Amino acid sequence: MNTNKTQNNKAWWLVLPVILSVAFSAVMPLMTVVNYSVQDILGPDQAVFVGTEWFKAVMRDQDLHSALLRQLWFSLAVLAIEIPLGIGVALTMPAQGWRASLSLVVVALPLLIPWNVVGTIWQIFGRGDIGLMGKLINDAGISYNYTGDSTDAWLTVLLMDVWHWTPLVVLLCYAGLRAIPDAYYQAAKIDGASRLAVFRFIQLPKLRNVLMIAVLLRFMDSFMIYTEPFVLTGGGPGNATTFLSQYLTQKAVGQFDLGPAAAFSLIYFLIILLFSFVLYTWMQRVGTGDKS
Asked: Per DSSP, what are the bridge partners of residue 41?
């Protein structure tokens, strides 16, 4: 029997529009940024090639170092809170019936709110005079003012992000839990396994791939956060909530330093790729080690 078949590659033409779209929307702007990063823009038609000068200047910028450290602490805090919290909420949700549908709708509501509206909601919610959260905290005898205290501002931004994006982790974990066959639970019940043992040896290993996606998504999103803290605090007080994306915007739009801003945006992009690769590699090795 002849198993050789002529391959029909005409289907690749269907992918061509996608390739062209990606090239236009991603590759072309990226090449423009690369072009700006090695030139000093003096005017609409005047540019001087400076090589790696802007990259050296950006790497010596102390404000950038502070913003990077602030961003790392924020992203690590987001992962440390949202991943365990998302798993815990998913475990408590009903598995079937109308309660399951209702809980999914309620949990997903924060994800439907636009980012700028989220910042506005928390801007009012945290006010010490009329905001529900801010007024309750102050009435309890605790001094709270996210517009004047850097710690309060940082914690408010963190709490806002937890409220807004933990539902994404919940939905991913919930889908992963529902995909576990009932045979595993039946075997655990026969063996008399406790709920902790079921979670440790059945649910958590089966959630590994889902958690990998959740960690990567939440890390990348938190590392690029801009709209919510900008609307809530404007990066203040001082530079307490000025993360890397806001620092880049100040460079490009506020100061109109296109060369340094372009160089910094490329460094920003490489930082995200590097940390995402490290996280992915680490989680893959942890999963391989547990299986062995």
From this structure: 47
